[in-house]
Amino acid sequence: MKHLQEISTAFFFLVFVCLLIFFSSCKTNSKVVYLQDIQSNIAIALQEVKEITLKPGDKLNIVVYSRDQELVKMFNLISMSEGNNSRENSYYTVNKEGQIDMPILGLISVEGLTRLEVADLIKYRLLAGKLLRDPTVTVEYANMYYYVMGEVGNPGKHEIEHDQITLLEALSEAGDLTIQGRRDNILVLRTVNGEQTPYRVDITQTEKLYGSPAFYLQQNDLIYVEPNTMRVNQSQLNANTLRTPGFWFSTTSFVLSLILLLTR
Question: Which of 42, 121, 181, 241 has its CA 20 to 30 A from that of 149?
């Protein structure tokens, strides 16, 4: 009778541990899935699109085109081959006052403008000054980056290739979060006018993500994905050993085997 009672106790203890592991797994899954409250076929209200705007220190490739090849050379820093329109690598840098200094046109205030707005402004100055009759102006970013640290597949510096980029797009380009990265407390550090502002973003909740001021990134934003509790515990050998499901399952199996051996 005592033998059966001991076996029964060990069995219920094993069941308890298995249930504990199961519910721990469910809790973990609830912290891994993105946009958990999103509903199918229901539109999400988006913020107004926030394009990248220029700041001091940004670099621009600017090329002015016209049918008058000789006249247009005065407005370009780069040389162009007549056959294939190849370009040398040269650029304008936005100074501390938010200006660029172009040949003939002089200082032009560009801080706070988008790439296309700068192109339109230069074209207007050329036409208003009757410097060119048919100008076409292209403006491209020469050094737009954001930075990603922490629990992602590909941390480091990443180039901004479009006029706007969202946090989700940036994380995707950085190789997505690892399974050990916290989805509910992503840090975005943004520097504006010499001051750095931190934003915390929860990408498991739709409203918190799409409503965040950091949903649209700016150049030089730094994203940090902190490790979850399991990842932190892995750096502490003792804590990791005692808390992993595998440890408790192995311990339970050992205890059950020991009880059966002693009661034979």
Answer: 241
Query: Other C-beta atoms within 10 Å of 181: how many?
Result: 21
143: Cα within 13 Å, side-chain hemisphere: 13
Section 29-49 average pLDDT: 84
The answer to whether residues 115 and 52 touch, using CB atoms and an 8 Å cutoff, is: yes
Q: Contacts from 254-263 at CB under 8 Å and sequence distance 24+?
A: 255/10, 255/13, 256/10, 256/11, 256/13, 256/14, 259/6, 259/7, 259/9, 259/10, 260/7, 260/10, 263/2, 263/3, 263/6, 263/7
Q: What is the pLDDT of residues 83-131, one digit of tens each?
A: 455 555 579 999 999 999 999 999 999 999 999 999 999 999 999 999 9
CATH fold of 59-141 reads wza like fold (3.30.1950)
pLDDT interval class at 27 (50, 70, 90): very low
- CATH number (3.10.560.10, 3.40.640.10, 3.30.70.1130, 2.130.10.120) of 145-227 reads 3.10.560.10
Q: Residue 209: what pLDDT?
A: 95
pTM beyond 0.85: the answer is: no
